[in-house]
Design goal:
- The complex is a heterodimer of chains A (206) and B (86).
- Chain A has ten helices and no strands.
- Chain A is mostly helical.
- Chain A has two domains: 7-92, RNA polymerase sigma factor, region 2, helix turn helix motif (Rna Polymerase Sigma Factor, Chain: A), CATH 1.10.1740.10; 106-203, Winged helix-like DNA-binding domain superfamily/Winged helix DNA-binding domain (Arc Repressor Mutant, subunit A), CATH 1.10.10.
- In chain A, α1 (7-18) crosses α2 (22-43) and α8 packs across α10 (179-203).
- Chain A is globular, with a radius of gyration of 19 Å.
- The two termini of chain A are 24 Å apart.
- By secondary structure, chain B is an all-alpha fold.
- Chain B folds into two domains: 1-54, no CATH class; 56-86.
- The chains are: A mainly alpha (206), B mainly alpha (86).
- At the A-B interface, α2, α3, α6, α7 and α8 of A face α1, α2, α4 and α5 of B.
Chain lengths: 206, 86
């Protein structure tokens, strides 16, 4: 189900935020904090990420007065979070470690023979639609479990691109990764989810 | 010639329409001949759709409530003229 704020209601939400309407803030906090947290988790541990997101909302109260709508509200908020995280990393002199060298997940790479053909091809086709699949509570729980086990870099890229529907350029900008590295992050994360769903469909086990 | 493993490496780029015309054509030709890769691409696409449908952006209510409190305090300060010095 798509619950994203539509453009016309986003404009009225921004006006309400500028007026300091507390109900509008409650709504915006619920709508945008999950994505903001996904951005912060790309850079920081869980508790620092939560702290940054809280600080950002306080900053937003003043900053939104100057918001001109050149980007969407979601992208603007995500950039604020990313900049704060980058500043904090700069202060702490830490950098995000990421491995972009391998395109294929080892578990998938091992399913090809030396000539590059499938040794262990996918057996089942995922027939059901995504919405139907998500009605399966056990699969949904399993997906949550696997998402939380993904490396932060892959999870943040995946969340921003798939769940929060950002364009590639925005994700690269927010997370400060090159377009080619973003492709690797997304592909590795999707393969893990593919392998998870495959195991689940074959065995019923997570 | 594009092998199954090569296709698996660029499968997300194909799904997202990020390949150039020549690469896209080789993937399509391979898919016409290879059922296993058709299944793989279909399943990888389904995995991607699954993620879009899954509202994994859930944040815990306690965390959201703490933000509400900080925002409410900051809004009060602003109204009373203390402002935010961040």
């Amino acid at each position: 189900m798509n619950t994203a704020v539509q453009p016309e209601s986003e404009a009225s939400l921004i006006e309400d935020l500028k007026r300091g309407d507390s109900t509008a803030y409650r709504r915006a906090v619920r709508e945008y904090s999950p994505g903001m947290l996904a951005v912060a988790r790309f850079y920081l541990d869980h508790s620092s990420a939560e702290e940054i997101v809280q600080d950002c909302w306080v900053t937003v109260i003043d900053a939104v007065q100057k918001f001109e709508g050149r980007s969407g509200l979601k992208t603007w908020l995500h950039r604020i979070v990313a900049n704060r995280c980058k500043n904090r990393l700069r202060v702490a002199n830490r950098e995000v470690a990421t491995d972009f060298s391998e395109t294929l997940e080892p578990e998938l790479a091992n399913r090809f023979n030396s000539t590059g053909r499938w040794d262990l091809p996918p057996k089942l086709q995922f027939h059901e639609s995504a919405d139907t699949l998500m009605e399966n509570g056990a699969l949904s729980d399993c997906l949550d479990k696997h998402l939380s086990a993904l490396p932060e870099t892959q999870r943040s890229a995946l969340m921003l691109y798939e769940a929060h529907q950002h364009k590639s350029d925005d994700v690269c900008n927010i997370l400060d990764v090159s377009a080619s590295n973003l492709r690797v992050l997304l592909h590795r994360a999707r393969q893990k989810i593919f392998l998870m769903v495959e195991t689940f469909q074959e065995t019923g086990e997570c | 010639m594009l092998m199954c493993r090569d296709l698996a490496e660029i499968a997300s780029d194909y799904i997202d329409g990020e390949l150039n015309g020549r690469q896209n054509l080789s993937v399509k030709m391979h898919l016409m001949m290879c059922k296993d890769c058709r299944t793989f691409i279909g399943n990888l696409r389904a995995s991607s759709n699954l993620l879009s449908a899954h509202s994994s952006g859930k944040a815990d209510e306690e965390f959201l409530r703490r933000i509400d409190e900080r925002v409410a305090e900051a809004l009060e300060d602003r109204k009373s003229g203390k402002g935010n010095n961040e």
